[in-house]
Amino acid sequence: MLASVLSATLLGVEGRLVTVEVHVSNGLPAYNVVGLPDAAGRESRERVRAAMLSSELAWPMRRVTVNLAPGGLRKSGAGFELAVALGLLLASDGLPAGCLDGAGVLGELGLDGSIRPVPGTLALVDAFHRAGLRRVVVPVQNSGEAALVAGIEVCPARSLGELRSCLKGEQAWPAIPSRRAASAGTGGGPPDSESPDDDEGLDLADVRGLRIVRRALEVAVAGGHHMLLVGPPGVGKTMLARRITTIMPALPSHEALEVTRIHSVVGAVESGTLVTRPPFRAPHHTASTAALVGGGSGRAHPGEVTLAHRGVLFLDELAEFSPAALDALRQPLEERVVRISRQSSSLTFPADFLLIACSNPCPCAQPPAECSCSPERVARYRRRLSAPLLDRFDVRMWVGPPEAGDRPGESSASVRPRVKAAVERQRERYAGRRWHRNGGLPPGALRVHVVLDDVAEQTWREIIERRALTGRGAAAIRRVARTLADLEGAERVSSAHLERAAMMREDVP
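^ thats the sequence. predicted structure below, dont judge the formating
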């Protein structure tokens, strides 16, 4: 007897459909799983058997073969166990034929018959939806997350015995747990309020002085320009960076769903809640290359650059990171994706993030006038940051200590509307393009989208000659100038915008 149940597995941050085929035949009692399962899949026999016996369901004392198709795709996790148990019930006439037609099944089994949650439910249910399925059976803990996918009926399940009764029509389906109001509604968008709800009371007004650096931070956020802050300790570099999300607008609904799907894969999403604020990731400087860009042994996992997708990656003490890890960031910064190649497959992780980095000018971290480091020691410290990496920062600023009489600047609530208006202008300008911010403008599109008159063109060329800029540096000046114009609501980029953009790309030590 043969039964098939549809399930899914994770491949990177995307879900892939898997057909769980269960064959029960005469012969000595045995249980075999084929189809490239990992260790968790191979161990499923004891969990499925104990769950069925605990639920007072008969375990077939026959030869059982479970095939996870397609056979060439590696499967990971224990999320197929519920599908295997239901397949056994279908094959032994313990469930009515056709009760799972057009339905996907996800869930791990406990020894007592309980159905446990699985990571990446949102990505997996999205794969079901794209395949045209109408229903999905998921653990009750994952039902709110699954309901974020519009157009699919979610059937929550608490235990194997209860699920069997529901499929036979003997019992009503459990209710989906209520979700937070901020993300209520299937596939709902961000909340109406633009005030951050998870920034722990941080505000840009906490920072005194640093008027020019604060303006540069606003430009970086508005245009999606990577930013490097260099200065002695205690001047406010980290304090500024930690408040960057307070001036960022909420994510649009499609981006919120995209970010939530990524965070669901690593189990970092509260069930049924959309991630409506741009993520902020701040890894420690001991993070490995795999931790930053993704990969690792076994199943490839998303790195910090992917978890910061549509948000901010903050690297404090930049020069303390491994040079190999930092150089691995160059490709994601340029292409806004991470490509990981394995012997059996290649994965592409999204990595469209804003990089904000802070660094001390030298190992002793003192102002230049008080630095006690030898020239060799300073040179060795600065060589940890390669020139190609530094060239990818559109905004580079020296941060000096604030004056004693400096007052707090504008609050986040005052800056955020300007940033939001500039972002909306860019979204309209680049509608239908693969980039949506000035910081992502490729060189070939600069002259189309950043038009300069004759005077501004001459100013731009003089800046290039005066600063001896690389091609990437010259393009950065033009992109930042476009953002300055957007913040002011100007249609054209002027010479003044270009000069101010050049001031925001300092030759930091």
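The longest strand covers residues 14-25.
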